[in-house]
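Work Package 3 (structural annotation) set out to generate three-dimensional models for the target panel prioritized at the project kickoff. During this period the team completed the workflow that converts sequence records into discrete structure tokens, so that structures can be stored uniformly alongside our sequence database. As a representative example, we reproduce one entry of 387 residues exactly as it appears in the project archive.
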Amino acid sequence: MKKFFKSIYNVLAFIPRKIAAFVKAYTKKHQLKITTKATLIYAFIFTVVFAFAGTMIIVIYSNFIANGWHRLSDKEIVVQLILLTAVVYPIAIALVLATGYYVINWILRPVKKMTETAKTINTESLSTRMESSGNGDEVDALAEILNLMLDSLQVAYDKQARFVSDASHELRTPISVIQGYSGLLKRWGLQNKEITEEAAAAIFSESQNMKNLVEKLLFLARTDKKAMLVKPSEFFVGELVEEIVRETKLYEKEHEVNTGQMEAITADADRELLKQALRVFLDNSIKYTPIGGKVTLSCYGEESEEGEKLCALVVSDNGIGIPEADLPFLFERFYKVDKARERDGGTGLGLSIAKWILDNHNASITISSSVGIGTTVKVLLPCKREA
């Protein structure tokens, strides 16, 4: 009996399977959308089933008329036809619904699979991706979009994890130094003036490093949350450059810091943020240029290939230079070229902040450097030149 019912099921499922196989092959070849597939499938099923039902009614009714029409009145013949139709068409409708359910369920199987896959994704399995059927329909488009979103989430999560790890590492050193000197003061008290002065100086220096690091972390956190606002206004870029050089000379006596080529240029930008970015490049040049070396900050006009007026802000030095292999990574957070360049409390965040500022001013940055010769940082900022 079990085999009999299985045979019946196989016979009944033959048509839906053939339809599904045909639809799969055709849609994969022509990359039809789900809505188009569903419409064509139901139209095809409806046509086939109801054509078959109509044929059955005609055959049965013809046999009925041929065998017993002379014994029935016209009214009884019509009633028999109505009854026959009332029996055959509900069966046809049920067959259409069952076949359509089977085929549509097959069409939506990738969606169910995507749902099951999505349930398994968490922070430990962000590398999981949605499978594509290759049909080129809406489901494949959805899978592609979800995979792109997961790619972005994984990159963001990895960056966040690395950011937290690097920040913890950067904070660990000054905290350890402060704890060490605090313990020294606790053990020796304040009687030893030399130790007291050394400890106070070290604690002050490391607390300043921590303050600078925290301020930069907060800046980057605001940029990540889109909470940092750029407030543009028109100003003379040359005046800003001269202001930066003048302020630098007040505290920097070991290097020759000067302005280079200067032109009258007006920019529509956030003056304070632009000053902060230029200060990052200038301070780095001073930090990695030997005592007595030269650092120059220039401001002049250029034109792009499209004829756009640009302001070139150039910081150049004759310092120790940067290895070519490190240039592509300079703007990554916490990136440091080597341990020899980590003096003066560097955090590896300044260039990341400068890049964010300039990116939000539609400016481009080019860094060229040669080890032992020097480094040149060139910023091209959209602006207008004074007549």
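Residues 339-344 have pLDDT under 50 and may be disordered.
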